Structure prediction request, 320 residues.
Amino acid sequence: MQDVAVHHEKLEKLLSNINKVMIGKEEEITLSLVALLAQGHVLLEDVPGVGKTMLVRTLAKSLDCDFRRIQFTPDLLPADVTGVSIYNPKEMEFEFRAGPILGNVVLADEINRTSPKTQSALLEAMEENNVTVDGHTIPLKKPFFVMATQNPIEYEGTYPLPEAQLDRFILKMRLGYPSAEQEMQMLERTSKEHPIETISPVMNQEELLAIQEEVKDVYLDQNVQWYIIKLVTSTRDHESIYLGVSPRASIALMQAAKAYAYLHGRDYVLPDDVKYLAPFVLAHRVILNAEAKYGGLTSERVIDHIVKNTQVPIRKEFHT
Prediction:
């Protein structure tokens, strides 16, 4: 229990550290940590310039992790992501040159500006925690966390992410524009130097790995499990949805709920945790039918409708 208390203190420092750089983005920072603690990955979608890249850089620096950045462009090749074997004439053998995916915290910047072929290079890494190069399987470092950014699909020069790629992200979120007051604070804080230059690591890799293991032990009552199943299965027969979420979504929602509960100092999951996280975990995994799209519906609105119309399990306590 003493280790758990120390780890919660570390997480508070981590949140405080990131808030020094990201002004007015407490919810988005919390969701990023939820994904990190659940050993998942995040998709950030928003217009350029709202701080997507800065959030990832700040997180990596606060964790003292090996930070790698992949700037996706139309001419990027899969080997530029995973790495390549190059012949060394002196040693008379091939040497593997690791690509940027072999880091701890990886920023996949503007992922939808490259071709689907290169996008797919991330699939194995994000799901299996390894990459295959020239027939050899290479394990990735631990911890391993991908935060991908993408511009809205209506922007020129973007490629839509395939459904299989979207399913690998435990949650998707947006940052949005800051308020006038928050933007004023940004001007004041960056007038002399950027806040990211002043922060230092508050957690090491071993501590993060230990916390990720503790998250797995968070208790999930059977009633809450059934609540997750009801939400997920509702997407498969909803009148506005052409393709519902896969079983991977059930696991993702469970893992995210455990991480969210842990982050809030609890060793058990509440139905409200699941209810809050459902839109972030499920919306990007569904495909709406043509009638819903032409009617102006969005996947977020449909998931909200499902959440509001799914009965929450009624019980005072959900922990032993």
